[in-house]
C-alpha cells in the first residue's frame, strides 16, 4: 500500500512538472528593431512572475498550463499586452512603440519604474542617453564621463577633465568597456573631453559596488557601455554642428528586419582656425581629435545572431615642426549570440584593444621620436541559464593576452643612442559563476564567485635585491633571465560576491553587498587627470596585484507612484598592495619600476545621498557624497597615513531639466566639491642659480586646493521643419555661467613686487621679488551653440 502511494505521488509530481512551460523571446523597438535592455515581461495578473530582458533583449520565465495575459513594458514606450493559451513552450517577441507623451517629459531612468527598490542591484547607476544629451556641456560637447561625475560617489580630478574617481579609487581602478572591449584611455585633448560619441551609444551603466561575478580586473568600478545596433527597418541619419566639432551618424538596414550597419563619426576643427594665425609656427600647427564608431549585426534566426563593432579614435597636437604628440584607441568586438534552447543563452566574444601614444621633438640638428602602447587580445564565454522563475544562473570564462610596450625612443642625433624599455607579456584568465535567487516576495539574493589568475611570462630580465633592504641599484645582487613563454610570476585567487535585498514594503527596501576584486594592472603616474603618457604596468616578480574588498548597505524608497526616488548608501572599502611613488623618483624611463615605488594599504569610506525625480515636466536629481580616502605606505609620508590626491570630503551635484513645451526645454546643473588634497612646497633653495621649490614628503597632501563650484545652463529649441521626416533643433549651453575662476593649478614662483620702494642711494625706485602662489584658471563663462538634426 505504501509503495502504491509513493508511486502515485511520483506520478502526480511528474504530471505537475509536465504542466510547467517556458515563455521566452526578445523585446525590441518597433521603429528601429533595436533591442530594449532591461524591458520587463510579466504576467498581468501576477506582476511578480516575469523577467527583465538581458543586454541582448532576451527574456525567459515559466508558468503553469493555462491562459495568461502577458504585459511587456519599458520606460518611455507604450505597454503591449498579448493573451496566450499556454499548452507548450512558446517564443513571443515584443515590439514596443515609443509613447507620444515622452515629448512632454524627460525620463531619467531607462528601466522599470521601481527597479531601484525591487532589484538586488545596489551601488549601480544607469543614465539614459537622452538625459546625458540634455546636460549642459563644455563647448557644447556632450560627454558621458562628465555626466557620470554628477552622480554620488563619482568625482572628477579637476576643472573640465574627464578623469573619474569612484568611491576613493584612482582613475586606473575603473574598467571602462565599450561593447565589452577595454578602453585604456577614455579622454581627448589631454582629458577635457571623453572618447564616447553619444550618437553611437545605447546604454550606459556603472557599478560602484555590488559588482557581478562576470566582471573583474579592476577594484573600484565597472563602466559598461553598449553601442547602438542601427535601424534594421529603414535608413536613418542624424548629426550636429557644434562650436568645436561636428558629427554624423548613419543607420543602414542591410537586410530588412535581419541586419543593419551603424556608422558614426565625430571630428573637431580647431586646427582649421589656426591656419589663419599670422605666426607661421602656429598656423602650421595641428590641434584636433576624431572618433569613428561602426557596428554590423546579422540575425540568422531567433537562435543565432552576430555583432561586429569597432571604435577608432585619435588625438593630434603639434606646434609647427617643433613638437608633435598623438595618441589613440582602437577596439574590435566580434560577438555571437546563440540560444541553445529557451533556457540557455550563450554570448561568445572575441575582443581586441590597442592603445598607443607617441611624440616627437625636433630642434636644430637634433631631436627624438617616442612610441609607447599596449595591446589586449580577449576571448570570453558568457552563459545565461534561466533555471526557473526563482533562479537565473550566470557562468563563464575569459582569457586575456596582454602585451605592454612601455617605451621606444629613436634619436635623430647620431651622438645620442637609441633607447627602449623591455616589453612585458602576461596572460590573465578567469572563471565565474553566480545566481540571482528569489527566495520569496521579501528576500532576494545574488551570489557568486570568480576565480582569476595572472601569469607574467617571458622574455624578461628581473633584478634580484638583497632581502630586507630597499629595492635599489645599490642593493641589487643579481639578475634572473627568463626565456620567451617562461613563467616569471603567477598570482591568483577567489573573488566572492554577494548581494541581498529585503523588501520592507512595496515602496521601500534594504540592501547590502560585498565584493572582492583583484587588479593586475596599474598606472604609473604622478598626475591625477589620466594623461595619455601614463604608463600601465603589470603585476610582476616584485609588484603584487591590488586586492580590494568593499561592503555597502543602503535604504531605497519610492514616493508618489515611483515619481520620486530616495536612496542612502554607506560603504567601506579597504585595499592591499596599493602602489605609490617614493619621493624624488621618476617612472617614465625607469626600466626597474620596482625601485621607484613602494606598496602598502589604503581605505576609503563614505555615505551617498540621492533624491531623484523621474517623470514629469521637471526631472533631475540632487546628490551629496560625504567621504574620506587615505593611504599608508612605508617610505611615503614617513610611513604615516596620508590623504589620497583625490580625497574630497564633500561633493554636491544638482541636475535639473524642465520641459516648457514640446519645442522648448531647459537644463541646468550646479556642482560643489571640496578642493583636492595637494602638497605645497615648504620653501625654496638655490641650485646652479635657479630657485627650486622644496617639498617635505612627511607632509604629503596635507594642503588643499580651493573649493570648487560651478553652474551650467542649457536651452534646447525645436525648430520648425518643412519636411515630414526631418527634425532639427538648436542647443545653447552656458558653461560656468557666473564666471567663477576655479583654479586648475597653483604654481609657486618668484614674482615682482607690485609696490616698488624708494631707495635714496639708488637712481629711482627699486623693485624686488617675492615668492607667491599663482593660480591658473582655465575656463570662465563659455557660451556655445550646437545645431542637431535627424531624418529618415
Automatic annotation (TrEMBL):
It comes from the Bacteria. Its main location: membrane. GO terms for molecular function: siderophore uptake transmembrane transporter activity. It is found in: Cell outer membrane. Residues 140-218 form the TonB-dependent receptor plug domain. It is a multi-pass membrane protein. Residues 1-18 form the signal peptide. Residues 285-737 form the TonB-dependent receptor-like beta-barrel domain. GO terms for biological process: siderophore transmembrane transport. GO terms for cellular component: cell outer membrane. Keywords: Cell outer membrane, Membrane, Receptor, Signal, TonB box, Transmembrane, Transmembrane beta strand, Transport. Gene3D superfamilies: Carboxypeptidase-like, regulatory domain, TonB-dependent receptor, beta-barrel domain, TonB-dependent receptor, plug domain. Belongs to the TonB-dependent receptor family. This is TonB-dependent receptor plug.
